[in-house]
Each structure stands twice: as C-alpha cells, then as structure tokens.
Amino acid sequence: MVISTASLLRILRSCAALACAGAFLPQCGDAQTFTLSQEQLIKYTEKYGDERFPDGRPKVPDALLERLKPLCAEEVHGVLSSQGFTNQFEGDWKVLHPGRKLVGRAVTIQYMPSRPDIADADLRDAQARGQGRPRNQSVIDALQPGDVIVADCFGSKFNFVGNKLAFAVGQATRNTGMVVDGGIYWLERMANFDLQAYFRSSQPALVSNVMVTGVNIPIRIGNATVLPGDVVFGDVEGVYFIPAHLVKDVVESGEISMARDEWTIKMMSTGKYKSSELYGRPSDPELMKQRREYIRNKTGRDEPEPRPAAKKPRP
C-alpha cells in the first residue's frame, strides 16, 4: 500500500512518541521520533493473520523465511505484481557480501536532514522527561533474531553504522543484516562479520547533520514503500520488501517456478530436445505430463493452469 505524504503526516501526528525518543547515532541531532501504535500496525497489516510481535509487527514464521531463501527476485516479482504491489523493489546497491542472500523481517528507521528548531524543541522535551541525548543503540538492542534493520537515510552520504554497531546488529539479529539507503563505513573490518548489508555509499569520514524522525513507521527506500514487518528479500538483483500477508503465496509460487525451471534445464541437458520443445509450455502431451509429475514430486502441489489470455476489444 502506497501512503501519500499528507496521509503519512496525519499518521505521524497521531502516533505516540517512543519511550526511547530519538534512538539514533550520538553525532545526530536530537529530534522527535514517531512510531505506529500496535493498533495502527495491525490496521495497516490487517490482511496478515498469523503471529505478531507485542508491538503489532507481523512475525512471519521462520519456516517461511527459510523456504524463501532459495528463490530469486523474478520469482518474488510475479506474485507481487499480480496483486498490485508494484512499488516493492529497489536496485542499484552496494553489497557487503556479494552472492549472499538477505532474508528477514523489517524494522524501519527514518532519518531527515537536521533542523535546529525541531532539535531544540525535542531536546527540551527530553530534558523535561529526565532523558539524556538519545542514541541508536536502543533500536539496535531491541532487534529480534531474524530481523533486518531498514534505514531510510534519504540516499545521503550519512554513515548509518560503523563496524562496532554493525557487529551489534549481527549479534541482535543472529547474523541477518541491514538495508541502508545511505552510507556505512569501516568496511574493511565489517567485511569479516557474518551479516549481510545493502547500502548506497561508504567513505571513511564521519558524516552527520541528520536527525531521526521515526522508528517502525512506513518509510521510502528509493522507489519502494516499506512497512514494519515486511519481509526483506535481497539477492543479486536488489531488494524486495514483501508484504507479510503475501509471503506464503510468494514462497509457494516460487517453489513451483523453481521446480519447473529445474525440469526444463534437466531436459535440455540431455541434448534430445530443442529449446522450442521445452521452453514455455511443451506442446508434446507426454512432456507436459512429465513436467507436471516432476513439479508435484518436488513441491507436493500441482502446477497451476495458465490464465486465459485477455480478450482484445473489437475495434
């Protein structure tokens, strides 16, 4: 679901401030942070009917996350596009460990360029509550196993984490990882860690002058809209943010697609058939029967019948 700027502002104005207001890096300005309430998270993910975290964030089962890992972006794309979710993919990333997948549940954090008047007002509120300068460890320390922290740094060169906090992300998520629409640094050290990261840039200088404006709210990552609890799927193509209620459909459809491709390549490797006899839908009934049996044995499900072609209107 794509939320307009006006709608998002209304949501943010109605949200209660986090108890750990402004969970972000020490060099960032103090800023009011917002979060979706449990009721709002359930409202915007109401089609998801399974287990949730106490804050309302969908908790897609670990077993589905494991089944998702062998798939590729094209197999994810088919289900999402057919359901009208056309703004869930973002490409053109730098990747910490090329060739390694990233799969997990999204925890979102939003940054904006710093404004002194907002920072000053929020600092006064924080002091009135007896709180000191906020730090991003409170968000990182709240991550759960299987989470992926997704940081909307508006494509800036702000370095979201360095090696020490990246290690903390890995510890908290059990080595899942992060997606950063901005920068990370200390890559030489971070490359030795057992976690994945998709990011835009890296430079050794510390870049700040930003403030956090939201935690676990809808955010924009490039051309994608991300909700807390979406399942992050990163491969060599880029990153998909899968709505929680569609993960099962994506997995089941993807497994059938993968089995179909396996059968086609296996038959091609025999050298007995031309590609036109196998690719697409085999015209030979016996080959089609073999493909159906292969898919059923691999997935436990039947290959769906092709959708009828849409009728073209008469001129």
Structure description:
Helices cover 34% and strands 17% of the residues. The protein is elongated, with a radius of gyration of 22 Å. It is built from 11 helices and 11 strands. A hairpin with a 2-residue loop joins β8 and β9 (224-226). By secondary structure, the chain is an alpha/beta fold. It folds into 2 domains: 5-244, 3-Layer(bba) Sandwich (Glucose Oxidase, domain 1); 249-299, no CATH class. The model is unreliable at 1-31 (pLDDT under 50).
Radius of gyration from the CA trace? Answer: 22 Å
Q: Tell me about the biggest sheet?
A: 9 strands, mixed
CATH class call of the largest domain: Alpha Beta
Shape: elongated
Which structural class should the secondary elements be placed in? alpha/beta
Give the CATH topology of the largest domain: Glucose Oxidase, domain 1
Number of helices: 11
Residue windows where pLDDT falls under 50 for at least 5 positions? 1-31
Query: Domains counted in the coordinates: how many?
Result: 2
The CATH homologous superfamily of the largest domain: Ribonuclease E inhibitor RraA/RraA-like
Strand content: 15-25%
Q: Brief description of this entry?
A:
By secondary structure, the chain is α/β, with parallel strands linked by helices.
Keywords:
11 helices; single chain; nine-stranded mixed sheet
